[in-house]
Amino acid sequence: MKTRMKLHLIIYVVVTGLFTACENEIPYNPGEQRSLLIMNALLNAGQTENLVYLHLSEGSNIGRLNEATLSLYVNGKQTESPQAISPEEYYENLKGQLDKDSYETLLKSMDFKIFRLSTVLQPGDNIRLEATAEGGQYHVSSQVTVPQPVQSLQVDTCTALIRQWGSMRAHRQYHITLQDLPNEKNYYRLEIVNNKDFRCVTYTIKEDENGDYIRDENGNYIYTTTKDTVVNYRYTELINREDVILTDGHITNSDDDENAMFPYIDNKYNIFTDNRFSNSSATLKVYTPLYDDNYNILESLHYTRCYLKHTITVRLLSLPETYYRYLKALNCMDDDDYDEVIMEPISLPNNIEGGLGFVGVSSEIQYTIDMPDKEWGWW
Fold it and tell me: Cα 313–319–320 angle (5° rounding)?
């Protein structure tokens, strides 16, 4: 199964992150040998940056894409035609971690193109992406419409014990209440992001020209900052097994995870429909770890004083039906319990004219929780 999926694994981008009905599908059958341009994008309304990925298929493999252009049209009007992100920018974070020869080899190995869109999309916008490659040899396009977001979101939290890995452990419990968009079939995705920013500062005592420590008028040493950096940690783990909507009625417990006799496809992307609460409200119950053990992180940081800002962002995304089906297919493809012999074959939606891939778009509503700030220091 893994080798048969080789080409089609590139047809989705798991970043972060989210069209009109489309009947085309991509089965896992690499019989097509003609080279095709692949376009992938998961666009999010309201954001100042969205990424579009272009690859070139060569039979069942990915080839090298040397030249490409991209244009964005919103409501029939061209809004931008960005330049591709350079290999130097894409791999900038690895520059100091690799030796010069390895870094140059990495830059030359980039065989795809990424474009950054800066147009802020709005609910109701009709979006069209057009891409060409290799001097016009390939031309693809895709058209999607931004869905309307949910209008209200309420979140209540508390600390609760749940059974995890054979023992009772404290987790953060969430009760998330939403009002369904009326008089239409709706598709949603839930995401909870725990974001921890550690600002670490290293101080040294100021010295005069003779190397003696400098003190103020009260006799206290005067310090200067020699290092000030921010380290970010982002966590998205979510436990949804007790919620009837997110499990589609298949509520489980931690013991069921080890039961190989009854395989179950986890709802990894936390997608759901309004089948159980159409034109009314619903409350989801989910859990995340507390993420309050900072010891290992602090141990790895060299600091005199360290400050932690911890925020929790609950995101509820509205999706078109095809985007929902796309993520549902990925739930199966990413799950170790998926068995192609006894389960339905997987097919990924394809809404790219003239090529392969998927363009999805979502709109969202957020609820942010600011946790109490913490501080550590030697003085």
Answer: 170
